[in-house]
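User: Can you model how flavin mononucleotide sits in this protein?
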Amino acid sequence: MRTTGSCRAFLTDPVPDEVLTRCFDAARFAPSGGNRQGWKVVAVRDATIRGRIRNLHVARWAEYTDGIARGIVPFNTYPQPKDAPPPAHRPMDPAWLAKVNAFAQQIDTIPVHLLVFVDLRTLAVADHRLDRQSIVGGGSIYPFVHNLLLAMRNEGLGSSLTTLLCASEAEVKELVGAPEPFALAALVLVGWPAAPLPTKLRRRTVESFATVDRFDGPALSMG
Ligand SMILES: Cc1cc2nc3c(=O)[nH]c(=O)nc-3n(C[C@H](O)[C@H](O)[C@H](O)COP(=O)(O)O)c2cc1C
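Assistant: Here's the modeled complex, given as structure tokens:
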């Protein structure tokens, strides 16, 4: 968990079926609502399909960076404060943005594109009646996705979890012949890393997000 960061520089060497299968074999023990396990993964190796995925992703990426340039939080409909800037987050850092931009342009060269779908009939979306963006359905697929990232890290593989492609779900489904009740949950890019995988990720401290008894209660810490 501490060293599974996004990898954005890959070798073009193939990833054997055997290694991928081992990762799926570990990831399938993820929790899901009612243990319904609605996941379905298409491991795309075909260069033409990877090229099409790249083009769809780049179009969404352009939308994302355009939003950032206009000072908004892209793909977020929650009202943001008018006079205060949105909370600082990495995409605002121009060096980071340039790096991720270069990465987006060449994802077709990454040997494996994992398209993670979920069967919508299996989801228990407990918050679907609330008057806000729904979040709970994702809880039955993203634990599986993260298990997969951890399993691949354990094999020495690099990976990058992306979701912008989900905005182009109809095109992706047509591209790989995915039928109705399936929704696209993620595009995970996988390959052998071109440089050593990170050993130190930057994340918020426990004290900054965990409290006792109340939202504004005392921070949880090791004491
Ligand atoms: C839901 C989600 C969507 C993401 N989409 C993208 C993406 O489109 N492109 C990308 O390069 N990284 C994407 N990432 C990776 C994040 O940028 C990364 O997890 C975060 O910056 C932390 O980086 P680190 O793990 O390298 O420390 C995404 C991550 C998540 C969880």
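A couple of observations from the model: The domain at 17-208 is CATH 3.40.109.10 (NADH Oxidase). The mean pLDDT is 93.
User: Helpful, thanks.
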